[in-house]
Amino acid sequence: MPDVNKSNEPGEPNEPNEPGTPARPGRFPRARRPGGLGKTAGGTADSRDLIKAVPVRHYGRWFSAVVVVGLLTLLVVAFAGADIDWGVVGEYLDDDTIIDGARRTLWITLLSMLVGVGLGVTLAVMRLSKNPVLSSVAFGYIWFFRGTPVLVQLVLWFNLSYIFDTLNLGFYKDEMNDVMTPFVAALLGLGLNEAAYMAEIARAGILSVDQGQTEAAHALGMNGAKTTRRIILPQAMRVIIPPTGNEFINMLKTSSLAYVIYYEELFRAADTISSRNLAVMELLMVATVWYLILTTIFSVGQYYLERYYAKGSSRQLPPTPWQRVRAQLTSFRPKNKVGGVTV
Fold first, then answer.
1. pLDDT, tens digit, 9 for 90 and up, residues 293-326
2. Measuring CA to CA, which of 57, 66, 296, 340 is 20 to 30 A from 203?
3. Contacting residues for 8 by C-beta, under 8 A, at least 6 apart
4. What are the Cα distances from residue 48, in Å, to 41, 51, 65?
C-alpha cells in the first residue's frame, strides 16, 4: 500500500490519493510552458528547448517579380526607341476631330447600352414567363443575336436597303437609304446585340433571388408584375450591376467596329487624320490614350456603383482607394496627447 504522506521527488508524477483522502495542494503534475520552454531544478531556462522560427522563403515570388519587371522594362525601352514621333501624339491628343470622335463614341455607347439594358431586362422577363410564346420568342432572339458577329450585324443593318427600298410603318414612310444612316445602323447593330447578352445577365440576377421572396409578395396580395418590379428586380440588381458595368466598358471598345459603316467615332477620326499626314502609329497611339481615359473613368464609376449596391449584403464595406490613401497619410502624422489620451 503506497504511503500517502510521502512527497514525490521533483520531476516524478504524483500518485493518486486514496479513496476518502482529501486532495492536497501541490500534488498535480506541473504543466510545461508552451513551446517546450522549461526550467531545470535550479530555475534556469534550457536553451536546447528553444524553437528558432525561420520564415518561409518565397524564392518563386521574387524570381517571377524580377522576370515581370525585366519584361516591362524591355517593353518600355523598345517603345521609347521605336520610330514613333511622340510630338505628333501630343499634338493630336486635343485635336478637334479626335475630341469629336471621342464624343461620338461616348454618345453611341450610352445609347446602345440604354437600348441593350431596357430590351435585355424585357427579354429576361419574357424568357422566365410561363407563356410558351413569350419564352420561345425571347429564346429565339437571344439565340440569333448571340450567334452572329457584331460586325456582320452592323453591315447587315447598314445595307438593309438591298432588301427594303422604303420604310413604311403606316404613320411614317421614307426611303431606307435616308433612314438607315451610319448612326442609326450603329445604334441598332450595337444595341440589339447587347440586348441578347443583357437578357442573360438579367435572367441570372432574377434567378439569384430566393423563391420565398416571390411567395411572400404573393401572400401580401401583390400580382406578378408588381412583385417583379418592387421585390425581385431591386434585389437582383446586386448581381446584375457588376457584369453590366463590364458590358458597358466592353461596348465602349466594341463601338470602334462602327468604323466599317462610316460612323465618325474615335477610331475612324484617328484613321481620317492618319490618311492625310501618314502618321499611322502616332494616331493609333492617340486613339489608344483616349480609349484608356474613357475606360478608366467608367471603371471608377462602376466601382462605386457596385459598392453602393453591396450595402445590402455586406455589413462593413472595405475602404475605398481614397480612404486607404488618407489612412496611410494620417498614419505618418505625429501623435499628440490631449488630456492624457494619444490622438
1. 999 988 888 888 777 776 666 667 777 777 777 7
2. 296
3. 14, 15, 27
4. 15, 8, 39
Contact 309, 237 (CB under 8 A): yes
Rounded to an integer, what is the distance from CA 329 to the centroid of its chain? 27
As a whole number of angstroms, the distance between CA 219 and CA 270 comes to: 59
CA-closest candidate to residue 14, choices 43, 304, 6, 139: 6
pLDDT at 41 over 50: no
**Cross-strand partners of 45:** 39
Burial 205-239 (b: 16+ CB within 10 A, else e): bbeebeeeebeebeeeebeeeebbeebbbebbbbb
Per residue in 93-106, is it b (16+ CB within 10 Å) or e — as a string? eeeebbeebbebbb
Neighbours of 318 (CB within 10 A): 9
> How far apart, in whole angstroms, are the C-alpha atoms of residue 254 and residue 300?
19
CA distance linking residue 290 with residue 241, whole number of Å: 25
Is residue 45 helix, strand or coil? strand
Grid cell digits, residue 327: 489612412
Maximum average pLDDT range among 19-28, 172-181, 182-191, 308-317: 182-191
Task: Please name which of 188, 186, 192 lies closest in space to residue 120, comparing C-alpha atoms.
Answer: 192
Cα gap 258→269, rounded to integer Å: 12
Rounded to 5 degrees, φ, ψ at 166 are: -130, 155
Q: Alpha helices of the chain — where are they, by DSSP H?
A: 59-80, 86-92, 96-127, 132-147, 150-158, 176-179, 182-207, 211-219, 224-227, 233-254, 266-277, 280-309, 321-331
Residue 252 to residue 105: CA distance in whole angstroms: 7
Angle at 26 between CA 23 and CA 27, to 5 degrees: 60
pTM: 0.70
